[in-house]
Amino acid sequence: MIDVKANTGTLHPLFHPAAHYASPVDVLNDGELSAPEKRIILSSWASDMFAVESCPALREIPGMDHTIRLADILAARRQLDGGDDDPPPGGIPMRLRRPWAAAQQR
């Protein structure tokens, strides 16, 4: 088996971020990455592709020795995008997302 953390000094953080960062905060604090590069890394970590099957609120990133909470990744994205506030609870009601569906129910 290949050790994914071997020779990490030659890998660009954008191509193998798990070898360089232990948390979303580490990504945010890297002064050498641009905001779009940080967004790419955080978005890839938030992907459902890395969701832990028995606990979808966690992400298991190949090359990391621990799981990361999706909430922490999304909080880092909000901070990167300039919004430190929490998202509204419950999201947008379905009737507001699809007003035509509410009209059909009447």
Describe the structure.
Residues 79-106 are annotated as: Disordered. The chain is mainly alpha-helical and 106 residues long. It has a domain at 17-81. Helix content is 38%, strand content 8%. It is built from 5 helices and 3 strands. It has helices at residues 24-29, 35-46, 70-80, 94-97, 99-105; strands at residues 51-52, 55-59, 68-69. It has a 3-stranded antiparallel beta sheet. Strand 2 (55-59) and strand 3 (68-69) form a beta hairpin. The chain is globular, with a radius of gyration of 18 Å. The termini are far apart.
| Poorly predicted regions | 1-8
Query: Major sheet: size, sense and barrel closure?
Result: 3 strands, antiparallel
Oligomerization: single chain
The side-by-side strand order for the widest beta sheet comes to 1-2-3
Mean pLDDT: 76
Sheet/helix structural class:
mainly alpha
| Cα distance spanning the termini | 60 Å
Structure annotation, total helices: 5
Choose one word for the global shape. Answer: globular
Portion in helices: 25-40%
Beta-strand percentage range: 5-15%
Number of strands: 3
Radius of gyration: 18 Å
Helix and strand pattern? HHEEEHHH
Region (Disordered): 79-106
Main traits of this protein?
mainly alpha, 3 strands, 5 helices, 106 residues, globular, three-stranded antiparallel sheet
In short:
This protein is mainly alpha-helical and 106 residues long. It contains 5 helices and 3 strands; from the N terminus they run ααβββααα. Helix 2 runs antiparallel to helix 3.
